[in-house]
Design brief:
Layout (H helix, E strand, L loop, with lengths): L1 H17 L21 H11 L4 E2 L2 E2 L6 H15 L4 H19 L7 H18 L5 H17 L11 H6 L1 H18 L5 H19 E6 L4 E6 L10 H18 L2 H13 L4 E3 L4 E2 L5 H4 L6 E3 H18 L2 H15 L2 E5 H4 L12 E4 L2 E4 L2 E5 L2 E3 L2 E2 L10 H17 L5
Antiparallel strand pairs: 1-2, 3-4, 5-6, 7-12, 8-11, 9-10, 12-13
């Protein structure tokens, strides 16, 4: 509770300073137009790479649960821009159909994270296409999800944890749920837009109560006020803070409440101990260190850097400060250096029954001719790219995250997504 009091105190001072000096009513978003993106080549390479990702019945088979959002959203935005080819249009239709099925399922059927990502994908599709036929479906999903989250005290620290909660912690996952409501308020609106905005605000307050504290970064010996991965974790990590930075940015855009913008800047300052290089910009991903047997600053995952880049773009959007888009571009520089080869058999290591013949891989219970392609690999560890022996080697959903973030970057500079 002390964390909540301290945070409120800081924001109260900010509020006093802003009286008569920074009227929220005058804020127009985005605050400024970004300079042209210098990563058009990376965007084009990722679009070409995506044709080689295994795709069946609307599902990207090398993803880690993120593709129902980032794959569907990227294709929907590019469809609106008129830049899809025939294969991409077919994937858009199939991924849209699968997203609808995912949000209609019960929460005990399959992966909850994937369903939340599907809801985010459908919200983007509503915004990009103008087709509101899925709004009732999204509402039903969010109402059911609300019942569960409310019953858990608006913070997803539960004994029977999902893969996402175990990996990223309850703070990041609760922030993701809040972001679904915020995205709905921003992109869908309508009769329930204000309700969804207020729900995002309530979840934000709950996360503050549960996770905002003084936490430490052992490698740098620094202590900062930031968001812990969970109530019992006193170590600084990137994921929960980047998730909260995105939520604060969205809440500022929805409310024009200066406190959210101040908090977003403060979170960016708090994660600086995790920065391990400046040119290109790379931030440590401590959550992944234990699984690789390395130190907290020795690994940076593609997914965490993608979310960081997107958070920086949202921060630029609400501030117009050049330093944030410049940092996002330096993060994209680091992502570009994560490109490497991967093969189906290196990613799909499960065994089929009967066993697959030599030269084939078992891809979700089906023997498939092995092939190799290129893409952004899952992580950088101790200065080297991911290797198959690391466990997780390649993630198509993570590549789709990068494509989405690059599209958002281009949108901020008034370029075609």
């Amino acid at each position: 509770m002390l964390a909540r009091v301290c945070l409120v105190g800081v924001l109260s001072v900010v509020g006093i300073l802003c009286v008569g000096a920074c009227s929220d009513d005058e804020v127009t978003l985005p605050v400024a137009t970004a300079p042209a993106s210098r990563h058009a080549a990376l965007r084009d390479e990722l679009a070409a790479d995506a044709h080689g990702f295994s795709f069946r019945d609307g599902d990207w088979l090398e993803d880690l649960g993120d593709a129902p959002f980032f794959g569907l959203a990227t294709l929907a935005r590019r469809q609106a821009a008129g830049t899809l080819d025939d294969d991409e249009r077919a994937r858009l239709d199939a991924s849209l159909a699968r997203a609808r099925l995912l949000v209609e399922q019960g929460f005990l059927d399959g992966d909850l994270q994937e369903k939340v990502m599907a809801a985010l994908g459908l919200i983007e599709h509503v915004s990009a296409s103008g087709d509101r036929s899925d709004v009732a479906r999204i509402d039903d999903f969010l109402d059911r999800l609300n019942g569960i989250v409310s019953a858990l005290g608006d913070y997803l620290d539960v004994p029977d944890q999902s893969w996402a909660v175990k990996t990223y912690g309850p703070t990041a996952v609760t922030a993701l749920v809040a972001l679904v409501h915020a995205q709905y308020a921003l992109y869908v609106g309508g009769d329930r837009g204000d309700e969804r905005r207020d729900r995002a605000k309530a979840l934000d307050r709950s996360i503050i109560d549960h996770a905002f504290a003084e936490i430490s970064d052992a490698p740098s010996a620094r202590v900062v006020r930031a968001y812990a991965s969970g109530p019992d974790d006193a170590a600084l990590d990137l994921y929960p803070n980047v998730a909260m930075l995105m939520l604060k940015a969205r809440l500022f855009r929805l409310t024009k409440d200066e406190g959210y913008r101040v908090e977003a800047r403060a979170i960016y300052a708090a994660i600086q101990p995790l920065k391990t290089s400046d040119v290109p910009a790379r931030y440590a991903s401590p959550y992944a260190a234990t699984g690789l047997g390395v130190g907290p600053h020795d690994v940076a995952t593609l997914s965490s850097q993608n979310y960081l880049a997107l958070a920086l773009l949202l921060l630029f959007e609400i501030t117009g400060e050049q330093r944030f888009v410049d940092e996002a571009d330096r993060v994209f520089d680091a992502l570009e250096a994560m490109r490497g080869p991967w093969c189906l058999a290196q990613v799909h290591t499960e065994a089929c029954t009967p066993p697959c013949a030599s030269g084939s891989a078992c891809v979700v219970s089906e023997c498939t001719p092995d092939h190799c392609a290129s893409g952004l690999l899952h992580h950088v560890v101790q200065g080297r790219l991911a290797e198959p022996s690391d466990g997780t080697f390649f993630c198509s959903g993570c590549n789709l995250q990068t494509a989405y973030a690059l599209g958002y970057r281009r949108m901020l500079s008034a370029e075609v997504w």
